[in-house]
Amino acid sequence: MSVIFILIACSLLLAGSFLGAFLWASRSGQFEDDYTPSVRILFEEESMTPPSLRVESPAASAKGGNNQSSTKPSDQCQKTTKK
Questions:
Q1: In a domain, 76, yes or no
Q2: Total domains in the fold of the chain
Q3: Is residue 67, in this structure, part of any structural domain at all?
Q4: Distance CA 19, CA 27 (A)
Q5: Which range marks the domain in which residue 6 is found?
Q6: 60 near 66, Cβ under 8 Å?
Q7: d(Cα 34, Cα 52) in Å, to the nearest integer?
Q8: What is the pLDDT of residues 20-61, one digit of tens each?
Q9: What angle (nearest 5°) sits at the alpha carbon of residue 73, between those of residues 69 and 57?
Q10: φ and ψ at 18, to 5 degrees?
Q11: Helix (H, G, I), strand (E, B) or coil at 7
Q12: Distance of CA 64 to the CA centre of its chain
């Protein structure tokens, strides 16, 4: 029977810590901007890394630094339209 009291005390302690974390997050402004994350995926942005600090993959540097795929656009259309 004493185990149930230990479990209740642990659950209340855990619930209190989650409540404290939620209150801390809401007071520090974590939930202020709820619009930007939902539309961020819609915009294509360049890398935020300056060109002088970018590191190319070994495969890209072997191709001459060109990051384009080897297939032609017409090949890609044919692959997607065939069923």
A1: no
A2: 1
A3: no
A4: 12
A5: 1-44
A6: yes
A7: 33
A8: 999 999 999 888 887 787 787 787 766 666 667 767 766 655
A9: 10
A10: -65, -40
A11: helix
A12: 30
**Are the C-beta atoms of 41 and 48 separated by less than 8 Å?**
no
For residue 10, is it within any domain? yes
Please identify which residue in the block is written with the tokens 């994350």.
Answer: 37
74's tokens: 């017409």
DSSP 21-81: HHHHHHHTTTTS--SHHHHGGGS----SS-GGG----HHHHHTTS--S-SS-HHHHHHHHH
Q: Largest Cα–Cα distance in the chain?
A: 73
In a domain, 38, yes or no: yes
Tokens 């974590």 map to which residue?
30
Token couple for 15: 């619930």
Residues 6+ apart with CB under 8 A from 27: none
> Which structure tokens are listed for 41?
């995926």
> For residue 65, what are the CA distances in angstroms to 45, 51, 58, 68?
20, 13, 9, 9
pLDDT of residue 36: 80
Q: What is the pTM of this model?
A: 0.42
